[in-house]
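Usage

Read records sequentially. Each one opens with the input sequence:
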Amino acid sequence: MAKILIVDDEEPIRSILRQLFEYEGHEVEEAGSATQALTLLQEGPVDVAFLDVKMPGQDGIELLETLRRDRPELQVVMISGHGTIDTAVEATRKGAFDFLEKPLDSDRLLLTLRNALEVKGLAQSVAALRSQVESRHAIVGASYQIRQVLDRVERVGPTDSRVLITGENGTGKELVARALHAISPRKDCAFVEVNCAAIPGELIESELFGHMKGSFTGAVQDRPGKFEQADGGTLFLDEIGDMALAAQAKVLRALEEGKVTRVGGQKPRSVDVRVIAATNKELVEEIGEGRFREDLFYRLNVVPIHLPPLRERRDDIPMLIQHFVDQMSRRDGLPARTFSAEAVARLQALEWPGNVRELRNTVERLLILAPHDGITADDVAALVGQGAGGNALGAELLRASTFAEFRERAERAFLLQKLREHDWNVSETARALEMPRSNVYKKIDKYGLQRED
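and closes with the structure output:
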């Protein structure tokens, strides 16, 4: 049951809405003016407010501005008998959840209310993160390690402190960054992500700070960078350990001064950005090797959050399996098959070098390829094997008819595994394999390797 506030100077409209919402089991309060609405809001919390645009005294748009400033958790739906596109756009820009025109349709009203309550539920789901969040960007688990992570997320999320998230590829660093943003005062502003490993070094400064027309070949117009795009919100610098030293210096300056200067520009621009960074590298070692600035590390590492690999929180695997089954059956239309206890135990025994991302891909493969409604330990053995270097891989290699074919199969499997371990970052994979990046690209082409997700 939700508590709903109806603000309209027309008593018949309030009466109709009250009857509709009370019939659905909700608690309803009425107000004939903005002043009366603010008085009622002081008496107790409200989940959703329906505001008429045109009212004597303070109108609905003005009241909306007040509510978004003072009560950002309140979902507000605007209603109007004189709806125009300009009014709807203005209401949306000022933070309205939706805009409905009179005469009001009961089905549309109830659908809008349901959607507003779902959004409010997600915004207030910080406590639910301790077990399982139902959103697409879920952090799932009940182990001690993941509860420690979620406790820190809850503590630092509502602040403006910078956070450095560390952990292996596939452990969920982006999910933590999004969770921090979702429970912060900046949640209604942009969440902007930059994958520092995926942007060539010569373009990273333009990507972060923007550029002016004509500042380099291909700069055909002025363009704001990610710092400007995230103004008022959160900037997530993923794989910060792969950022070039020159760009690190400029990021440090932006954090210190709160200003950025576009490439080819002269005028600094002020930005209000919360920076969250993530890396799979040991930055202290990178500092020792001269590849990462120590002063930037201390600027970013105000609150550290380390995500444990999946092999260190195996107790979460049953919950994760069920979460992925529910998610894929609901969103992707895959069959909602059950996993036997033996199948789950076998999955728990694997090493999971690709962590949660690898587990998700494995669950998807089993849902698609398993021949029966229930997934058994035999299905896991046949379709997954014993993990990297396990029985399934060995059987596949031994089916080669010549030594040359065996070598090619082994090389393909080895390269694919290393690419997965490094989240398909070719530069990082080449560095780990101690081979030229061009050779890695050639072998990817030779074996037709493609990223699964």
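Summary fields computed downstream for this record:
- Residues 122-137, 387-392 have pLDDT under 50 and may be disordered.
- The two ends are 39 Å apart (CA to CA).
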